[in-house]
């Protein structure tokens, strides 16, 4: 069973461009979580999605950021008009169910660098 | 904010046991205690989790205090590959109205000396 896959692993964008980060959850997992890790800091929750639904986006910046998890295909985290402060590692995790006792399995991350 | 308290760093010698403590004095009756670790330049990796009873798996053991206000992750024989940041986490059941979001604190940076 393949683990959580993220691509690209590294992404370089200039200020004002768009960044699209992809996450394919583990097989059989319908719950996807996105986290952001700024340099030298811990991971911060951004958004939690189930297939075709955003369940909790309370950790997502109000502007420029959006996420989706379509019926078919990977989950996408989209950042419009990137700024230098968006430079970070973005991790996706998946789980088969949600709840306090559920384990989240993380991908290797996408490292975004905004020039 | 993280609901757990961990030492910033710890050191261990290779082949020796390591006990990583965590305080979670505000834990509720239904909170599971999760441990993840993050090796340099990698994504977090699940280590172990438990509710009330001590737990063992091939990676580690989790000792949970009787009052559940603290727990200890035990690596029985540390190797150089165990050098990582270890996070003790209580998923936030009420965060944004959903369940299970992991709240990462700063964790404990474990160094292993050969």
Q: Could you give a quick summary of the protein structure above?
A:
With 115 residues, chain A is mainly beta. Chain A is 0% helix and 49% strand.
Structural features:
heterodimer, A: mainly beta, seven-stranded mixed sheet, B: five-stranded mixed sheet, four-stranded antiparallel sheet, 41% strand, globular
Commentary on this structure:
The complex is a heterodimer of chains A (115) and B (114). Chain A is an all-beta fold and 115 residues long. Helices cover 0% and strands 49% of the residues of chain A. Chain A is built from no helices and eleven strands. Chain A starts with a strand and ends with a strand. Chain B has strands spanning 9-13, 18-23, 33-38, 45-50, 55-56, 61-64, 70-75, 84-89, 108-113. The radius of gyration of chain B is 14 Å and the shape is globular. Chain B has 114 residues and is an all-beta fold. In chain B, strand 6 (61-64) and strand 7 (70-75) form a beta hairpin. Chain B is built from no helices and nine strands. In chain B, the strands form two sheets. In chain B, strands 1-9-8-3-4 form a five-stranded mixed sheet, with no helix packed on it. In chain B, strands 2-7-6-5 form a four-stranded antiparallel sheet, with no helix packed on it. Classes of the chains: A mainly beta (115), B mainly beta (114). The interface between A and B is medium-sized, with 29 and 30 residues.
Bulk shape of chain B: globular
Q: Per the principal axes of the C-alpha atoms, what is the gross shape of chain A?
A: globular
Strand content of chain B: 35-45%
Identify the strand order in the major beta sheet of chain B. 1-9-8-3-4
């Amino acid at each position: 069973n393949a683990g959580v896959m993220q691509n690209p692993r590294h992404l370089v964008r200039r200020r004002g461009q768009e960044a699209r980060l992809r996450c394919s959850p583990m097989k059989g997992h319908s719950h996807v979580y996105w986290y952001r890790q700024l340099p030298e800091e811990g991971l911060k929750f951004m958004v939690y999605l189930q297939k075709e639904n955003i369940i909790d986006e309370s950790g997502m910046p109000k502007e420029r950021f959006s996420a989706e998890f379509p019926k078919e295909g990977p989950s996408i985290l989209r950042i419009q008009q990137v700024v230098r402060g968006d430079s970070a590692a973005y991790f996706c995790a998946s789980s088969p169910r949600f709840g306090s006792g559920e384990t989240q399995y993380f991908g290797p991350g996408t490292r975004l660098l905004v020039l | 904010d993280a609901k757990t308290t961990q030492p910033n760093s710890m050191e261990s010698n290779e082949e020796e046991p390591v006990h990583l403590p965590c305080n979670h004095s505000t834990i509720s009756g239904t909170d599971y205690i999760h441990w993840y670790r993050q090796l340099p330049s990698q994504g977090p990796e699940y280590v172990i989790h438990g509710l009330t009873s001590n737990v063992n798996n091939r990676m580690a053991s989790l000792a949970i205090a009787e009052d559940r206000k603290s727990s200890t992750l035990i690596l029985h024989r540390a190797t150089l590959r165990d050098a990582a940041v270890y996070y003790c986490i209580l998923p936030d059941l009420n965060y944004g109205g959903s369940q299970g979001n992991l709240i990462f604190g700063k964790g404990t940076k474990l160094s292993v000396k050969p």
